[in-house]
Each structure stands twice: as C-alpha cells, then as structure tokens.
Amino acid sequence: xxxxxxxxxxxxxxxxxxxxxxxxxxxxxxxxxxxxxxxxxxxxxxxxxxxxxxxxxxxxxxxxxxxxxxxxxxxxxxxxxxxxxxxxxxxxxxxxxxxxxxxxxxxxxxxxxxxxxxxxxxxxxxx
Length: 127
Ligand code: HEM
Description:
By secondary structure, the chain is mainly α. The chain has a single domain, classed as Globin-like (Orthogonal Bundle), CATH 1.10.490. The chain contains seven helices and no strands. It has helices at about 5-10, 10-25, 40-55, 60-65, 70-75, 80-100, 100-120. Helix 2 crosses helix 6 and helix 6 (about 80-100) packs antiparallel against helix 7. The longest helix has 18 residues, at about 80-100. It starts with 5 loop residues before the first helix and ends in an 8-residue tail after the last helix. The relative contact order is 0.16. Bound molecules: protoporphyrin IX containing FE (HEM). Protoporphyrin IX containing FE binds near residues 42, 73, 115 and 116. Protoporphyrin IX containing FE binds near residues 36, 43, 46, 50 and 119.
C-alpha cells in the first residue's frame, strides 16, 4: 500500500486556486509588493510547479528549472523576518479563503513556516 501523498490530498485544482489567491494577497501587501514583479502570472506558474513537488507530486519545477535551491534563488531579494511573517500571513489568509482545514492544512502550514524562516537572508530593518 502506497502512502497518500499530500499532493493527492489537496489535488491540482485546489492547489492552483490556493496559489492564485495567495499571490493576490502578496501583490497587495506593503512589505511584499515592492520586491515582487508587477505581473505575478509567471511567479504563480512557477510556484504551482514548485508546490506540486514540495507536496510529493510530480517534479514539475525541477523538470523545467533544475534543482530548486530555494534559499539561493531568494538571495537577490532582501527577505527580513518581517517579510517572512508577511508571506506566511498571505498564505494563512489564502488557506482560509479556499477552505483548507484540518490535519492537512496544519501540517502543510507548519512546513511552510519552517521553509519561510529558512529563506530569511536580511536582518530586521526596525531596531
Ligand atoms: C520566487 C519572495 C518564501 C518559493 C520568489 C520571488 C520573490 C520571493 C521576490 C521572485 C518572484 C519572481 O521573480 O517571479 C519570497 C519572500 C518569502 C518567500 C519574501 C518569505 C519568506 C518562499 C517560500 C517558498 C517560496 C516559503 C516555498 C515554500 C518560491 C518559488 C519562487 C519564488 C518557487 C519562484 C522561483 C523561480 O523563479 O524559479 N520569492 N519568497 N518562497 N519563491 Fe519565494
């Protein structure tokens, strides 16, 4: 018996919806908007590929872009602890909006908290 993959639990349609709603919030957030492109279409497309493999689905991101090396790919962007919290708050809101609940949501969100904190590469700008 194969384990049920998180990717199969959420499904492609719901994951896609989550990422679209997430980037709508990112594009409105005062701390995030300035470091993202104005048009988030391509960013969302890549994030759907990445999240698919992050959740155990097919390796769509690696297939098109090579090894994720996510921390390194974020080096050009100043990611402060405040920006990590902002990113997570957009994700939290998006999860609420698309109705992700229960054990799956808890596990997924917890993992994203760890990954988001791992992306921090710039100290807090407030003293
Ligand atoms: C790309 C910011 C956390 C996955 C990007 C880009 C920015 C950014 C500015 C470039 C967008 C573009 O040029 O299209 C942030 C900030 C974070 C964060 C402020 C706060 C901690 C994360 C996390 C993940 C993630 C937690 C995954 C779990 C990605 C992916 C891309 C990306 C897959 C596309 C990479 C590519 O261009 O191939 N992020 N990010 N990011 N981010 Fe993040």
